Input
Amino acid sequence: MTLELEGRIKTKLPAQGGTSARGSWVRQDFVVEYQDGNYMSEACFSAWGQERVDELARFNDGDAVKVSFNVRAREYGGRWYNDLRVWRLGAAGAPAQQAAPQAAPQPAPQPQVPAYSAPAPTIDDMPIDIGTGEDDLPF
Output
C-alpha cells in the first residue's frame, strides 16, 4: 500500500549505516509535522538507501515536503515495530512524477434521468378507507 503525506520537516536525525550479510546499508530517519484535522501531528519516516538519503539532504528543517511511503511491520523479540519507508521525497505542491504519460482526464458520466410517460399522482389518487369513505391520514 502506498500513502502520501504533506507537511514540514521538523528534524532530521543523523544517518546510520553498516554492513550486513547482504552488503552495506545506509538509512536516515526524519520527523515530519503535518496537519491532522484541527491538530498538528508528527510522523517519523525512514529513508533507506543512499539515493533516498541524498534526496533528504536537499531539504532543511522547516521545508515543506511531500512524502510518498509504504508501511511495513516486523517482529523482534516478541514485539512488533512499524516502519514508514520513504520511496519518494519532493517539495510540497510539486507535481507528482509519472512513470508514463497519462491520457487527459475524461469527465464523469452524467446520470441518465429516466423518461416517465405516466403523469404525476394527484390528491385524487390517494387511497381512502372504503368502509367510512374518509382517508386515514391523522391530519
User: Anything to note?
Assistant: The chain has one helix and six strands.
